[in-house]
From TrEMBL:
Gene Ontology MF terms: hydrolase activity; metal ion binding
Originating organism: Haloferax litoreum
Protein origin, superkingdom: Archaea
Protein name: M20/M25/M40 family metallo-hydrolase
Domain Peptidase M20 dimerisation: 202-303
Pfam families hit by this protein: M20_dimer (PF07687), Peptidase_M20 (PF01546)
Necessary cofactors: Zn(2+)
Keyword S-adenosyl-L-methionine set for record: no
Database matches in SUPFAM superfamilies: Bacterial exopeptidase dimerisation domain, Zn-dependent exopeptidases
Similarity section: Belongs to the peptidase M20A family.
UniProt KW keywords: Hydrolase, Metal-binding, Zinc
Amino acid sequence: MSSDTTTETDAGVASAIDPDETIEVLQDLVQIPSPFFEEEAIATYIYDWLDERGLDPEYHTVSEPAITGFEGDNVVARIEGSDPEAPTVLLNGHMDTVQHVEGWDEDPTSGRIEDGKLYGQGACDMKGGLAAILVAFEALAERDLDGDVLLTAVVDEEGPFGLGTDATIRDGVTTDCDVAIVTEPAPTITQQDIENPAIVLGARGRFLYEITVTGKAAHGSQPDMGVNAALDAARIADAISEMDLGHHEKLGSGSVCLLSIEGGGEPLSVPDQCELEIDRHVVPGETAESVLEDAQRVVDSLDLESDVDISLRETPEPDMYFQPYVTDENDPLVTPFFDSIRELFDTEPDVGYFSSIGDFNHLGGRAEIPTVIVGPDGANVHGTGEYVYVDEVVETAQLVADATSRLVE
């Protein structure tokens, strides 16, 4: 995107986006530390920001006692339209960041602006996008809308399960939503080399294999007397890395990555147990059942002496995994985004697909809501020196406001 084409545009609601306010909100958000499971302070800021503007926010409780013990709150607000038959648009953004990484040359929550870039942990992923939907939501609230606009600022996107967005689905908060806009940094983690203005219309899914290999202990000087679980685990890891994977014309191929292999370590002892964690990214058509069957077939083909137990990572609910999805770019609820980009930026958008996972998988996959990702670009996501381009934060707000107004006015 290029700010010199948008700040002067006369594009209805998009022209109501105040660049200074947008950047101020972004800087405020970045200066509030909010690693996943520690979002209370930023949730309070967002609630108060919305409340001060008369936008009637509510806290939405997120509770997961069984595995993580997490208790927290999403922030939810709704603009009610006048026509119950008109579409309802969901604006979704996560409040959390990864845990602050070591190695920053400055305070990772500085929010420093230099050369058009704002620096800080989570600046690009995704406080830039979160700031954009907040100011877009404010601008839309000043319009006479036919359809509803629902804002969800959620917890735990960067954590293990995406508890915040999952709770909005499970509790029925998003039940009436016809299309979802997620303002993740669109070009940053796609399969393709794309540039803003861009629209991301799908993502691979993900499972995590947990494999326990049980052999037989013996003295290390007599390995033939035992069954080496670590050696068999290595054979499994190698074989799974070579397994046939699904392919999709939009999302590309699946992938497998060994994350950890642990076992043994006793002096002069044949390891009798070893555990593996293996990441598996998948495409449409691959399910929990098929993924397990694939791994079992590979293990069976090795004819190992060890006993092998294969499972998927435990989740709070049986269906709570990151499902792959693809949104049709010709869907009438999606084409307004193309129209907005053409009008606001006088160009055709790039179209891409995410290689990894996020809350958009819960929305586009499990909830089957047509889901569009648009968001500001930057660099060093999840690392030191993370930054977002401030002009693209403003432009994302303009795009979200304009496309949403086309859907609900």
